[in-house]
Amino acid sequence: MIPTLKSARVAFQGEQGAFSEAAAIQLFGDSVTTIPRPTFDSAFAAIADGAADVLLAPVENTLAGSVVRVYDLLLESDLTMVSETILHIEHQLIGCPGATLADLRSVSSHPVALAQCEKFFLAHSNLRRVPTEDTAGSVREVISRGDKSFAGIAARRAASIYGGTILAENIHDNPENFTRFVLLVPSAQAAQLASPEANKMSIALRLAHKPGALLAALEPFSRHGVNLQKIESRPIHGRPFEYQFYLDVETGSSAALNAALAEVRSSTTFLRVLGLYPSAPRA
């Protein structure tokens, strides 16, 4: 955690008890002030609105892949990554107090969470799946309705926040389920928060329309010993069938990274460093 951000208000997408809030607690500690926002768009606007000081946003899940809306909003915003954290995702089936698994008829949650519990639903084929906007929000709604035939799938913390009962633990299919979150601050403040341990850089770039452009943009990283961890392509809005690329690279040498980056710039029509920060420990 960055010491100067110890008392920061942290915006996240979702409701209290969401996995994003759990990630904020993991990064900042139990005393963190979290600011729930209903959508990614409103979460990205929270700092400009004066509602929060920083934003914690999920960028990828080991099973579901990249959170594409976050990538789009990153380029539309003036925010910079200064830290990351990786959260282990564990899905709990949460119902009303006094309910039992036998009482259930419907289970609600975010579509990704529902999809990650396929084996549970195959074993309980009588249960109807109900997609919702948020995991924790599904539990809040279940408890507020007081209907013992409904349950939600969310993090364990949602049960304690909303007064629910865990009816089945760890119902996810794959235990190797992790989500990576990045901490975003206004770009003007990023230099003040730079860490001497920063070894990972996230980059957005666009290529020249010529043969070998992608190779020319990636080869300098290899030649300078910079590890390319991830490459993601996204459509450029308003320019059909044209794409921009998002890269995560890692190195123990800032000189090697800067040298590679200088060469890459000459092979692109657009390049923006989205952040330089310490890589999170692998869980």
Protein described:
This protein has 283 residues and is of the alpha/beta class. It folds into 3 domains: 3-88 and 177-193, D-Maltodextrin-Binding Protein, domain 2 (3-Layer(aba) Sandwich); 92-168, D-Maltodextrin-Binding Protein, domain 2; 200-277, Alpha-Beta Plaits, CATH 3.30.70. Helices cover 28% and strands 34% of the residues. It contains 10 helices and 15 strands. Strands 1, 2, 3, 4, 5 and 11 form a 6-stranded mixed beta sheet that branches. A 5-stranded mixed beta sheet has the order 8-7-9-6-10. A 4-stranded antiparallel beta sheet has the order 13-14-12-15, with helices on both faces. Strand 13 (227-235) and strand 14 form a beta hairpin. Helix 9 (213-223) runs antiparallel to helix 10 (254-265). The two termini are 16 Å apart. The mean pLDDT is 94.
